[in-house]
């Protein structure tokens, strides 16, 4: 079980963030990542890494390999550093960082930026014209569908195209061995459990709230419901170090955190949403070319937690 004050090496941090070891040292030099020294060796605590993740809350250039859980506060207006001609992709998955880098290689005239915000706020930002690509994994409990019902509600009067990226498995993070035998949504209301929740607007939070609604349960009656975390990684690590009995998140993150088992619940659809007026633009057509390429598929074919059979398919035109 990884404690908050466990000493981590630069390589440990690189593995957690899915970046190069040299990038870790660069983050230290820029004052973005806290560290300490034991003799001549640089060391970190898990709380240093989580603080770095929490502080990475701005639109930024894609950093190939950056952990998918970096996410900012809701984007409400363009920042002065963002040009009107910039192409902004919302979302938190590692796949989007790799996609952004590929766009700039194939369409060098396009400056591609990333905004690490959740699904609900991503669609709102697209509606408001602040971004060009939103991503969503939002489940509707009444229809059992992903994303289409939310695109219709949150982008009224705007013609959109939904492009499939990947499927992922959502489920529970529980301590190794699942000592409290947590398997279903109804288990979360047990008085002996404490959860760690995601922030409002994230796909995982909406999945929880929709399932509670269908069960006729109030989130307010669940221990820990008001305790929010900003990333899948932070949720899993909280469970892994004994700070909560259960959290909700993606399968692939469970493989990165010690002391955690994963209880699969549902396959979700993770998709891109663009305005139809932008569909024939060079950046969007470049995205389709990349997603349908064998090279891009091979990047993710062997990674646990990605199901890419439908990658690049047009799912709906709304």
From TrEMBL:
PBP domain mapped to chain residues: 102-292
SUPFAM superfamilies, per database record: Periplasmic binding protein-like II, Putative DNA-binding domain
Superkingdom to which the source organism belongs: Bacteria
GO MF assignments: DNA binding
Xref: Pfam families: HTH_17, PBP_like
Domain Helix-turn-helix: residue ranges: 8-55
NCBIfam families: excise
Cited PANTHER family: BLL2305 PROTEIN
Record's protein name: Putative molybdate-binding protein
Native source organism of the sequence: Acetobacterium woodii (strain ATCC 29683 / DSM 1030 / JCM 2381 / KCTC 1655 / WB1)
